[in-house]
Fold:
Amino acid sequence: MSNHVHLCLVLHNHQPIGNFDGVFEQAYQDSYRPFLDVFEPYDQLQISLHTSGPLMIWLAERHPEYLDRLRLLVEAGRIEIIGGPQYEPILTMLPSRDRIGQIEAYGRWLERHLGSTPAGMWTPERVWESTLTRDVADAGIRYTVLDDYHFRAAGVDEERLTGYFITEDDGRLLRIFPGSEHLRYTIPFQPVEATIDHCRSVAERAPGAVLTFGDDGEKFGTWPDTKVHVYDRGWLKSLFNALTENASWLHTVSLGEAINRTAPVGKIYLPDCSYREMTEWSLPTPSQITLDDVTHELDSHERWSDLKTFVRGGYWRNFKSKYEETNEMYARMMHVSRRLADAESAGIDAGQLAVIRDHLYRGQCNCPYWHGAFGGIYLPHLRNAVYQHLITADNLLSNLTGELSGAVQATADDYDFDGLQEVRLSNDKLCAWVAPGRGGRLYELDVREISHNLLATLQRRPESYHQKVLAGPNAGGEDVASIHDRVVFKQADLDQRLQYDRYPRKSLMDHFYDVDTDLNAVSRGEAMERGDFVELPFEAKLRRGSDRVQVQMRREGNAWGIPIVLTKAVTMVSGSDSLEITYLLENLPQDRELHFAIEMNFAGLPAGADDRYFSGEDGQPLGQLGERLDLQHASQLSLSDRWLGIDVSMNLDRPSGIWAFPVETVSQSEAGFELVHQSVCVQPHWLVRGDAEGRWCVKIEMAASCESHAETVNEEQVIQL
Structure:
């Protein structure tokens, strides 16, 4: 055959910061190692390989023999190492300094450990904005891979997607390869002949073309059912056999070699975009459902092949509005990044800042900042890991600047970029973040000693895939299925566990319920809200004393149409691991009782283990944290996690009923649909009646005490990596 094409196989291997060691190991055994086992004998083939920083560091520590094999293949010209930002952040959510810093940091790591200075880059989740070009080029990168979907969104037709393009920003140039969506769905899910036939058809109409496959390496063994399909049944070996047999016209080369052999197709300026599925996932759920319905209805339309180019989903940054928790992590990350930049400008020792910067970069790992076909933000261990690194970085900065010397501080700023001012109270034990403009809620509570955010919670929301949950499981038939097509339940009766919250799962959320409201209605999110205090703004004042600070918040609202004034204050004392929380209700009726509850939520305290438990007064055990409690006339409740090494206790000066229950979500992951424990909700509640002056008050002491042996990420551990 005289006509030829070049095929670039680009694999992206990744495990996120905070993932379980067993998951890393299983992926290594099922995917990364066996892929090299199959690939090594085929000495005519070249591939480009990207391994994310978290995974590469783990491999260097646990399986150095894998890096030895990579180095030999790199030296032989068989594998081209592709770089990128070190800890796999979405680049568009980072300030320019961190984009460049992450890319350069990983380039140095790869040069030290593999002797390879990368010229190409994997763009995490292929999330692209034109202004990235300048920063990526300034970091020393010459080329990257996006999806052909990006190019179609720019109006490029299928016939021109036969090579790489040049783009430019502020005079900086970058080459971009369009990864083939067609190949993403044939490899490895269709017979090998489908891939070869597709390449042959391109060779016939566009001799000398470059085709690019760029996708997750976990498709080769880690994704459900793929290990048997790819290795046991020999799909990957069959692919490499076919590529070798057709090597006279089908040249399997690296990205760098494709650039050496071919000229660019032309110049392109791409819109803000990602891969097709990501643009759909970033839409608000109702819009996502509408888009899915419309595209299915139009699929049989005679002009659909022309129309679908112009039908697009959403924009990655809107995950920060779709999930309030994403915005909270993002804002926390930006706060640390700004503090680090300020410390660098102030001339603080570069060695100390390098350790802090590594924690910041780890806290930028993208996975818990969004959600699609994988767990993402729904996985508490990933959220907790991000917060752990961000809080550790903040602690180290605070230590350098003297903030942890025993003083207590109170500052106000628009910390979460919502146009309203939030309040930050901090001492050497705790850091509390309060939003007066959002119901006076406590939305982050950091326990410094263990670098843990007790309010890394998640609201239960409708998701578009909940329609599949209601429809029931479908494993996709006998053939191996794309992860996007599988409907598998990891627990029974998940359709009965779909529950939604009207408000975020934060603390100091003030509810007025009907008198007969019970635990079941509250836990299911079905209790009627009779007041207007949960989300509407409070007036706020900051008070500072010699050893304490206080934010006092006041709102003139109503419950059942009765005008009520609610004042609450949060006080932090120097050196204390407790918050003093006081409430005052005024203008209460004296002739009737109102049902008042204060919602608290605590995250990172998992259920289902005997060393994570409730206890009441005098320490009597009340069961595991996944259980439901309906206490009467209680003055104390504690939540303990012996693995994390923390006890969270609440002491009330006015006995109350206390409801406690787990907050669980039904979410989508690689292996199927699953029930995930997100947090524990605790609600003290009272039937309140005004005194002679129409007043009622309560004081709550909330403490977060740690055991000295609790594990945490420390400076020494980071340096060793």
